[in-house]
Design goal:
The structure is a homooctamer.
Chain A (H helix, E strand, L loop, with lengths): L2 E5 L5 H13 L4 E5 L6 H13 L4 E7 L4 H8 L4 E6 L7 H8 L8 E2 L4 H16 L3 H32 L1
Parallel strand pairs in A: 1-2, 1-3, 3-4, 4-5
């Protein structure tokens, strides 16, 4: 297991599956669990301790509202912690974004964008971190980057063809 | 000791002394300490456990930025937790306010206004909570409330006199 | 009656029933009524006076937009007042949140999160306040806290099982 | 007395004197007092009742933070109420602006800009309201409007001359 | 005609009909038209000039986005101008609210809440302004205020009865 | 005269001189004047009419608060209008930014950043627009772009040298 | 080809077609393509280089989230760049608006309103820029401006007729 | 060289020195340079290419306003990119924060808090990433974490002693 994905509540699963799906694509083994900074603080610290014992390289934490989960994990961990703010209140995710990113000096959380885009990017950043020591993952990242660029070019060609047809 | 005041950093002291000063005025014994949710998570849980053992009635927590302190204390405590957001970043305190107030269901933090006004009000709310079982504190609260109203009336008279003189 | 729930308008009922439901679970007797700080100011002060006469321990106030209800109640009361900001305008609840939480020095409102999460937490905070003098409520709070933690663990196990099945 | 100016605290005086100064320029008699929606709610309602008895045409209310003053006055009054949000917290006046302007249906507050600009405009709006029945005030308003336009033209000429000199 | 209602676009009609409906209830004659500060600036100034010639007492302006309509009308008028910010962009009405309320010194707009609540309150404020010289309108305003208070009391009774039945 | 710079108030001059200074550097003749959308609406339309008669290619408008100036100019003009939001209230320029940029369909304002950065960029954009028909200006723009890039490289060299010395 | 429309992703097409549609109405030849500042940076610079070689007069860029596309294009181009912020995250477009408009000194982007209104206005601004050297386009712009004003007047007449019928 | 620090402008140096200072403390070799996404795009891509050739493990990018620097670097790099938003406009850093963190899917930036706190944390996160393959750095991180916790405890003791003395 290289990456641990933790989410604050079961309802965050549809967002955090974006991380899981992309990690699978990169061939990076991961585990996924639920632990709430507020409802099960003991579980958070034991989950982190176990992850570090197993040699996990990155922890990804997704949470909404006063999203303390990533910060609380970072207070216990020396591995990099990636935070995914989830939009779970009428405030449009600004609450979880600021709770995640505005960490005080000494205890960083690598904050991603709010929601599914951020959850996907958590997987890419995790791969980039692991790629510093695993050449296979680095190769897959390079391929992924080329694929993204190619996809844009194909869409551009598609748009151009379609536009010609329409007129 | 009836109230424990916790702050995330020494720099929060000038704000949190407002709580201390007003608790003294209400004759409510308190203790004040520093514990960081992010830099000393172990200390936070031991400080809370000790406070509950001593029979503290309220915990007041002041913190800035991703202000997780009050929320993390609330995750450990069954006593009421009052959170004072402190303006400690260029974002004007919106970060600490949202981090403090937007707690998920099950684990409340009683959020106050950002800064010194909130720190003062934390003392008043603590007194109101203690006042539910301590008639002496309740009497002092009633006197404080009358004093506030009288002070407004005196200021109003002062303004009226001054205005007459000026013209 | 230990808790009075006041809401500014009938349309706030679906939110404030979260407070009522959880108070019932805690076995705390309560009453629920409607009073508007703006449309029926006289009713607000008489409702507060009557509640204090009856010995109510906590007042919970839910309101949207310029949510003055909790603040106006706090201006009349010496019991703790909990404010639940309700999202009732295109501004996403930021208006009711700031109106509720930014109380001036001397007159606190214990602000909760915007919407249903906040309404639930108002019941938990009320129970925590009452629990300072009622050991039975304190025991139920401790049980509730354990239940929250267990629920997280069960969800975590469920997720783990499901993940294994899927692969 | 045609206009009553109420402010929530003595510290609002430097802002609210802008209203007073401009009302004097319009020759509109006014009174100025202090009354806090939160610290002296009884005083607010008696001040409003007395103002309506005296036949006041407009009430101007200036307050900061959770600026409930104008709204609470509006709940008691049938005369137009003008609200001036005052910047009195780290949130830059957004709290007092939203508390003042987002009034629920049925009880309007005529909200002005945050701070001194708003305090000045409160005097102009009061004059416009009184001008509907007092032709002398209406004439002074027309003169004031011409003066504003002329001042712009003079500044424009000054700028043009200065620019020519500089080059 | 006592009140002129102007809206920036046909799509604002569903909001501004709230103003119209309540003015009818107050028995205040009004006219309603469309004029855009940006697409038909000439029409705006001629509409204002005609309204002032007809002796209109109040102009109500509703607009979305960069809501300049009320401000532009206020630049031409000496009658009170009431601005209703309309939520017409992804920014949730914050754009139209700030564009409407933050008027520079000398040219006030009486800003209402965003959307239908604000449109209703524009009618109440218009009635309050007209009520300064028309005792019949003042009487209807007093009756409206009592009706609002009574409606709250009836809803409160309904809630109380319903709660008893349910249990 | 190719560019007209208009500002809403004399106090905007220190910001708008950034536009003037850079236009001089590009060798583009301009005029600068004051006209307020709210205090001198007639002057705004005559200034625009005169500018279009003179064949001005771009109008730059700087204003604070409810910054309607650029929008009102755009309502009269068919030349491109560039808007510079100026920070002139406690809200940090968010009011003038949203008032400037959120123009309704049909009447664009080319919005720049808040303050001096935006004022400088107004000059660059004006030069880019004029550069479409004036090869000399286009050449100066290309030189300016190279100068910006070179300045970065020099600063980078300076930093590198300084860092070496320090260690 | 006079205008190049670039969008960051295929999902921006429904918004950016507003630009395309209106450019067609103005008779201005354009091309439309996809290029992502983040996923295909090389493509962005080659697309810009090609556009400048072809003599394109304006580039319009639409993007959401951290909308860097317009800024990155502006870093390569000396033609005017118009940025359309697209609402593509839970933050309501505030992210793309600020990313687009807050350009540092030296490299302007002409920012439009968020979404379809902004996309339409990008076409009008492009026409205004081209109109500085193409009298035919300028004529069509003048006609468009008259059409907008007439449409408002027709809507106003329709409203007036409908109101009369209803009563 | 393990870490490359890039800043958008010389004025960002006082903030970014926090990163440099802490990297030195961790014994991690780094280089620091200036490259602007907008004024020197070519330099950005060559700086990134050179850094990846040298085997740099992390790139830290600090920038203000429309902070595109980190995102543009991330578009070229496969190493992890850490973004430090810098408060460089009247908007309080909200512009640079949202520009940095809201990256679209596929191209992550690890966003830190606004300003010096974020710059410090960039060094810690860089050390955590390098620590995954360098046990010496991991040891120093563990020591740093203990030092942070001890510093809190010492401050707490200091506060306690001081409080006793004062009373």
């Amino acid at each position: 297991v290289k990456v641990l994905i933790v989410m604050g509540s079961e309802s965050d699963l549809t967002v955090m599956q974006e991380t899981a799906g992309l990690l699978e694509e990169f061939g990076i083994p991961f585990e996924m669990t639920i632990a709430s900074a507020h409802r099960s603080p003991g579980r958070v610290s034991s989950v982190v301790a176990e992850a570090e014992r197993k040699g996990v390289d990155v922890i990804v934490a997704g949470a909404g509202m006063s999203a303390h989960l990533a910060g609380v994990i970072a207070s216990h961990a020396v591995v990099p912690v990636i935070g995914v703010p989830i939009n779970a209140s009428p405030l449009g995710g600004l609450d979880s974004l600021l709770s995640t990113v505005q960490m005080p000096p000494g205890v960083p959380v690598a904050a991603m964008a709010v929601g599914k885009a951020g959850a996907k990017n958590a997987a890419v950043l995790a791969a980039q971190i692991i790629g510093r020591k695993d050449p296979a993952v680095l190769r897959r990242l390079r391929a992924y980057k080329r694929k993204l660029a190619r996809a844009v070019e194909e869409k551009a060609r598609g748009l151009s063809t379609e536009t010609k047809k329409t007129r």
